[in-house]
Amino acid sequence: MKYRIITHVHTKYSHDSLLPFFLLYNKCIKKSVDYIAITEHNNIKGAVAFRNYCANKGNKIKVIIGEEIMTSEGEIIGLFLNQEIKPFQSPEKTVDEI
Question: What CA–CA distance (Å, rounded) separates 82 from 85?
Fold first, then answer.
């Protein structure tokens, strides 16, 4: 079985995006996306909110809770998170928390 997966998306919950949920959802449906990782900058709020949005639409798109975390040496993306990871830590500490 093949799946269509998008692994790095920001929504209106990141400082560099204005993407509203209805546009993202409609584009995913149009492109037959099965899974999407929402990876906001330093928070998981958008991922959790989009997961709830998709649930209200019948769970046609599965949301992977992610975060693009700023470390002391650059950014790291964490996927399948249950809680936010504190930014500006060392890369090693960040990976340990993921």
Answer: 9
What string of DSSP letters covers 2-35?
---EEEEE--TTSTT----HHHHHHHHHHTT--E
SS3 label, residue 74: strand
Does this model's pTM top 0.85? My answer is yes
From residue 76, how far is each of 39, 82, 97 by CA, in Å? 10, 16, 12
* SS3 at position 56: helix
For residue 64, give the 3-state DSSP assignment. Answer: strand
Six token digits for residue 11: 């929504």
**For 8-43, what is each residue's pLDDT tens digit?**
999 999 999 999 999 999 999 999 999 999 999 999
Q: What domains are there in the chain, each with its CATH number?
A: 5-97 (3.20.20.140)
Q: What is the pLDDT, as a whole number, of residue 93?
A: 98
